[in-house]
Amino acid sequence: MSEAPADSLWLHHYRMCSLTEVVELSGLTESELREWVEAGILDPADPQVEPWSFRADCVVTLRTACRLRQDFDLDTHSVALMVTLLDRVHALEAEVRELRAQLPQTHR
Amino acid sequence: MKYKDYYKVMGLERTATAEDIKKTYRKLARKYHPDVSKEANAEEKFKEVAEAYEVLKDPEKRAAYDQLGSHQPGQDFRPPPGWEQQFSERDFSFDGIDLSDLFAAFGGARPRGAASGGRHPIPGEDYEVNVKITLQQACDGSELDLRLELPEYDTHGFAHRVPHTVKARIPKGATEGQRLRLSGKGGKGLNGGRNGNLYLNISLEPHPLFRVSGHDLYLDLPLTPWEAVLGTAVQVPTLKGDVRLKIPSGTTGGQRLRVAHRGLPKPHEGAGDLFAIVQIAVPTTVSDDERKLFEALAEKSQFDPRRHFERR
């Protein structure tokens, strides 16, 4: 199996994805994606500029949101609430990691 | 075909009502959902529960499942004669098929393979796997062999899980929690549909020396009291070899000394920094000569590190 470097793609905030790409990667339809943008689950880079583009790391959030929607049978507003809380948890986890890294080993 | 006891997986009686099944599923999903749970083996546990629920929530599938009788989990069995005619018009081959894939082909959901008759393209499934790499691999980039079970479809259109080894190139630039997408490395597309993607959730193995914060690394740097007072230059390890770090005179414990761009490389450009955190280390046993020198110093020194305790 050959492996071209282009096969690997970091989903981080430096890279942008087009609307079509996000639809393909998330498994949502375009109208569902627009509904989710309206509900505040994700934001386009610039809502005024059509077609929309998104930061690549939104794909991670979207895939989680899709899973939660399906596995817990959630409506759009519950998904929005869940994603807000998950984002907060992830930010706090990152902060804890950062603070832990700065603690000397002997004090842990 | 191997038997799975879906009732046991969910901790339910065979007589459970549809309402019981739904309630129990929700409880277990909250406990084990990999996006929510911190339990060990949450993902495997959730997969089992979801598979059981998928069958038990559907009255038709549940009836068909109940007709299979009760066996020991993992036991090889064949459905009773006439079972397939009762529940489906399709031909079945039960050898080497997973129970979940059998039920996935029931009811409205048509199997994905050739027997579905459709000619329209069906994209392959996406998969997500957790991958642990070392700091050195994150720094240099690496190639990993990932062992996955991906479905392949037989002529009846049934899925068989076949172990695959996927070569994944992890470009440098990884850090904790980052995601990598490998295009086309997931399930095979059918009828010309695109192949699914493989998503890697990267986590970093703990390193004996370096701690990670984003792309920055932290290292404890023990110094002797005299090195800290007089200043010196010390060898400091980094992921790309040792560097010489100048310690200015009067360095204090807890101070952070920055070694620029010796952290983890960033995927975009540049690299994080390495921070050496100074610790003043003291010998726990000293020779007579050393003790005398310390005593002489204690007598001579005017230094009072606790002056700020004095009453204002």
Fill in the keyword field for this structure:
heterodimer, A: 108 residues, two-stranded antiparallel sheet, 4 helices, disordered N terminus, B: 312 residues, alpha+beta, Helix Hairpins, HSP40/DNAj peptide-binding domain, 3 domains, 4-stranded mixed beta sheet, 3-stranded mixed beta sheet, 24% strand
Provide a descriptive summary of the structure in words.
Chain A has helices at 19-26, 30-38, 58-72, 76-102; strands spanning 8-10, 16-18, 53-55. Chain A is mainly α. Chain A has one domain (5-107): Multidrug-efflux Transporter Regulator, Chain: A, Domain 2, CATH 1.10.1660.10. Chain A has a two-stranded antiparallel ribbon with strand order 2-3. Chain A starts with 7 loop residues before the first strand and ends in a 6-residue tail after the last helix. Chain B has 312 residues and is an alpha+beta fold. Chain B has 3 domains: 1-109, Helix Hairpins (Orthogonal Bundle); 122-206, Urease metallochaperone UreE, N-terminal domain (HSP40/DNAj peptide-binding domain), CATH 2.60.260.20; 210-309, HSP40/DNAj peptide-binding domain. Helices cover 26% and strands 24% of the residues of chain B. Chain B has helices spanning 6-10, 18-32, 42-56, 59-67, 83-87, 99-104, 135-140, 225-230, 288-300, and strands at residues 127-133, 142-153, 159-170, 179-182, 198-204, 210-213, 216-223, 232-236, 243-247, 256-259, 274-280. Chain B starts with 5 loop residues before the first helix and ends in a 12-residue tail after the last helix. The model of chain B has no long low-confidence stretch (mean pLDDT 87). Chain A binds chain B through residues 1, 3, 5-12, 14, 25, 27, 57, 59-60, 63-64, 67-68, 71-72, 86, 90, 93-94, 97-98, 100-102, 104-106, and chain B through 26, 29-30, 33, 35-36, 46, 50, 126, 128, 143, 166-171, 173-174, 176-185, 197, 199, 211-214, 216-218, 220, 254, 267-268, 275, 277, 279. Strand 1 (8-10) of chain A pairs antiparallel with strand 4 of chain B, so a sheet runs across the interface.
